[in-house]
Design brief:
heterodimer; A: alpha/beta; Fumarate Reductase Iron-sulfur Protein, Chain B, domain 2; Rossmann fold; 3 domains; four-stranded parallel beta sheet; B: mainly alpha; Fumarate Reductase Cytochrome B subunit; 10 helices; 0% strand; binds iron/sulfur cluster
Amino acid sequence: MAKREPSINTENFTAVQLMELDSCSRCGECVEWCPTYDASGKDPGLAPRDKILRWREYMNKSYGLRAKLFGPKEIPEEDIEEFKDDVYGCTTCGMCATVCESAINTVELWESMRANLVKRGNGPYGKQGAFLKLIGEYKNPYMADNKDRTNWFPEDVQIEDKAEVLYYGGCTAELRQRKLALATARVLNKLGIKFTMLGEDEICCGSALIRTGQYFVEDTAKVNAQKNIDNIVAKGAKIVLYACAGCYRASLVDWPRLTGKELPFKVVHITEFLQDLIEKGEIKWEKSIDKKVTYHDPCHLGRHVGVFEPPRAVLEAIPGIEFIEMDRIKENQRCCGAGGGVKAGIPDLALGVASTRVEDALATNSDVLSSACPFCKRNLSDGRDAIGAQELEVEDVIVLTAEAMGIDLSDTPE
Amino acid sequence: MAMEYFAGISDALRLTFVQVMILATLSIGIFLIGMYINLKKWGMGSTGYGDAPSKSVLAFPKTLMYQMNEHAHVHNQSVLETFVLDILFQRRILRRSPLRWFMHFTIFFGWMALFALSLAMFLVEMIHMVAGEAAHSLPEFMNPAVFRELLAVPNDIFSYILLTGIIIAIYRRLFVTKVREATIAYDSILLIGLTVITITGFIADGIRTGRFWGFDMPYEWAPPAALFHVIISLLFCIAYIPFSKYIHMIAIPLALLANKGGE
Ligand code: SF4
Ligand code: SF4
């Protein structure tokens, strides 16, 4: 009789990741902090600890001692489907990795599980399945004409054809949260910094594909990353600025990994860039923003790559702002709920997480809940609307910066 | 005549000595086979991001070395710092919960120290036996009887440290609702094993010394009690490691090293 094949395989896992499954001490710390587990009404399947346990059991059933002696044990297909649903109920916020007593790199583990399940034919989840086709066809996940990325900029905005500084706008800011992109462009203009953009040659950074485990399909994410890199180089850029946490993380961490090469330019978040200018005294503030402002660390900017101080430095430098911290900040920040494909795949869950984060902000009595990512802004605004907290303004740090520099953004097109 | 015995392998227990040696070899053998199976299992992964599964038993050590040498975006702490502060001192647990850290640290520290002391006692007896006639030329403290007395106080101290941790762990598992509800066999087997080993150690020592933990049991029971303690220690603490939650003793330090102490 032919020996039964294991129900799962180890595609997309590294050897260290498979070891990490055995290093979970089941302390439960991750369960305490997971935002989606919390917002789901404590659905046990979403608990990070439980996901590790289940995949470890799958591994042992397939490749452990018993499997070696008597052949692999079958894992019911429903179990794997259910597991898939649970592993996509995660924003890849990284909180579980921060608190993990065993130092497991959980986010990468979730992403590997997702990629494995995509390859197996189970993933991705719901609408996320359209990302590939959309990005392939439109170069962005919003089904927008790629020309519309920058052709809407008002005439006064000066974008060079070639420059040492390039602003990589990202799909969300250029196509959906245009105030943010306009603010960035006008701030740079006002500071006299010559910059260029990729315009219609810009392709989605790949974050949506990578986070949802679809990066390897037809090598789309890798091919796009390389095209972006080549296009950036062709523009003569040495410094690439980002005002989107997702694009920033993808460029800094994922692009070199996908392409197997160091980037030929410096990746800088706009708040890092501004902090530097503030320290050199090169920013002239023209307006006072007399508001209490709190700041939400985007997961992909903070926990994932450690940019915590620059956005705070910018906010604290703006005249009139009374800066107040929420309880959970920096490494311990609570996710906005949008990342990891959750906004597209499980919007209710995204909204639940966002509402909790908005409540964190309300507890500080702030007038403004700021962030440094258009995706966070969008979901936090939805969360604010969901709980009817209209008195709370949700705004990006770069927009506040623009206002304080006396820049008018009222002509931002829809 | 009162029987002399130390780690259970003295001359008066020739049979026991052979048994213990066989068992120790067997335990180490099972441990090695188990670790080989684990290495094979881990080696089903790839050696790099996005690469095809390697299926080589060397995949894990290779990937580990690669990751340890890689530049990380957030933390780039040294191997020494990871080893001292994260592996030995376990500061990641301390950051999350001082009580849980105290519990785990006492178990870890007590266990390690007792393991080292048992090993030392075993070695002294081995040397003593191998030396045979020449044993009298060994330094005085190398006499098993003397050496055992030397170890008596540290043995007691570390045993109680270990017991303290175990009591806290049992208390949490039984009386802290969240912990109790999340407990599965994987967790309880580890704790039950550790508890049985610790308690039998106390009892064997108690019978031999006639102290509280002997519960007035006859002195003749001391050698079999010690033997039982040695056997389950070998089976549980060595042979069973690769097949149970004990694997965390190996896997957590590896994960800490691979991820440079973690996020
Ligand atoms: S990455 Fe965030 S959302 Fe995902 S399991 Fe971890 S804590 Fe939960
Ligand atoms: S925090 Fe880490 S070790 Fe603890 S249960 Fe979660 S994954 Fe496991």
